[in-house]
What we know:
The chain is an alpha+beta fold. It has a domain at 68-166: Immunoglobulin-like (Sandwich), CATH 2.60.40. Helices cover 38% and strands 43% of the residues.
Amino acid sequence: xxxxxxxxxxxxxxxxxxxxxxxxxxxxxxxxxxxxxxxxxxxxxxxxxxxxxxxxxxxxxxxxxxxxxxxxxxxxxxxxxxxxxxxxxxxxxxxxxxxxxxxxxxxxxxxxxxxxxxxxxxxxxxxxxxxxxxxxxxxxxxxxxxxxxxxxxxxxxxxxxxxxxxx
Length: 167
């Protein structure tokens, strides 16, 4: 009788050890799977070495280009547009662009992004075909959405014009 009791006790101990090892293996496997998923999602958004070099070259070219141009904001405000009885206020910038380099600049695109609460509200793209040395050009940037049949002004109601608008 006591011999069977000791055998039962040993089998119970081994069973508990086996169950514990099983849970330990499951915990380690789930940790490794979770860490693998985290690693994949982390490195998914990373740039490759080639892309980093291309991005650095793009930033260098933009910096050189910005040294050739002087962009000054003459006026910043809203343009009131009326459609039927509703008045909307369209964000507007008047820009003065000066070519400070000794060479002519061709095929330029000036992009203006209007932001409210760090979110882009609208954007304006101003094409410039050529800008001669020391030439000054005045442009107006509005929130205009180009659609297939024309353009539509994107504006704000009067109550929202009190919010801070960044550009």
